[in-house]
Amino acid sequence: MGDGQIPLKHLPPSLHQSILRSSIGLGLFAILTVGLISVTWVMTREKIQTQVRAYEARALMEILPAGTYDNVLVDAKIQLQPARLLSSSEQREAYVALDDGEVSAVILPVTAPDGYSGRIELLVGINRNGTLAGVRAITHKETPGLGDKINTNVSDWILSFAGKSLGNPDAEGWAVQKDGGDFDQFTGATITPRAVVAAVYRALQYFEENRNILLDPLRMNSEESRYDG
Length: 229
Prior knowledge:
Blueprint: H1 13-63, E1 77-80, E2 92-99, E3 102-115, E4 118-127, E5 132-139, H2 191-209, H3 211-214
Antiparallel strand pairs: 1-2, 2-3, 3-4, 4-5
């Protein structure tokens, strides 16, 4: 061969067999590695999903404490179609609280897509009268010591949403103070609270636009309740 390489068939048998064994070994190692990664991914994904569900259940109890409704909240779900105001591109589930057969509050899933480190998943509880029952962050990747102040175990900032509504404050007030709004930003971190405030405001808009369906227990499990907002 012109480039000085020795064809494999011309190698000594012992060297040929050694190369062949090495190639087979590398191939098996690659297959095994891919298999282990796949199994680990599946197991880790299931564990993460379980942890998210557990945290979500705790968040539901924090947003709507026991005694404020008379149904099993974690089982009272309705399907929501992908919705711009919720920043969702797939069907998601909302929770419905009942009191003596009447919808007393709903808890909507909403995404803040523009967090500092990516998406922030929130649960936004809205009372029948349109006021916020509470907001909790479920998953995010915000910077520890800065953006993670949206967690209740780090600060009480997110508790300030309780009692607010579309008209309290007015539209201009639904922003952080740096942008002329009513909500505090974090020292050294404005992007995270800005994203959360905007997402909560959109959830309130979604509730207002779909109030008739969300507050009607007879329609919430019908095809009519599977809407896009």
